[in-house]
Amino acid sequence: MKQLPITTYGMDVLRKKTVPVKDIDNSIISLVRNMFYTMDKASGIGLAAPQVNLSLSVAVIDISGIDEYKNQKPLVLINPTVIETHGKVTMEEGCLSIPDIRADVERPDEVHIRYHDFDMNEVDIELSGFIARVAQHEIDHLNGRLFVDLISDESKKELKKELLLIKKGIVEADYPLLINTEKV
Ligand code: NI
User: Fold this and answer.
1) How confident is the model at residue 141 (pLDDT cuts 50, 70, 90)?
2) How many angstroms is it from 5 CA to the middle of ligand 1?
3) Most exposed residue of 11, 101, 125, 139, measured as fewest CB within 10 angstroms of its CB?
4) 106 belongs to the catalytic site
5) Residues 169/171/177/182 CA torsion (nearest 10 deg)
6) How many domains is the chain partitioned into structurally?
7) The pLDDT value given to residue 177
């Protein structure tokens, strides 16, 4: 398995709507394996393909490293869409593509998701609580949206400088990063 470098805030690939997966071949299987490995190495709980520089509708989630959720099975979401949501809850979020930045995000508490499994069968799941939040964060990635788009204006103001630094490629993490080299 391969640890892939993670794209950082400011890169175009994080802002593009991803392309749906048409069929499951070896390259998708190995991508998913590498994504789980990369996520684990970075101590992450969710990772979307644009974060490994691929504009493809694939995300992986594993929150079982958190004691409270140790029985929660990992999820592989291929071409996921949000069908329905309920409730509202605010919780602090972070993102491997935006190192060291955390802020409160309001999201629905329950979510009905439809995605494809490895046989390309349609699967419907209802999630609630923390796993629902992580799934929504990852599905946002697949639509070019980041959690910092959803924070309060006050938080946006507070984080403006730090975000600009990441955009300029001035950023460090304890996992490999792909740094933005375009002029800001
Ligand atoms: Ni993220």
Assistant:
1) very high
2) 14
3) 125
4) no
5) -10
6) 1
7) 98
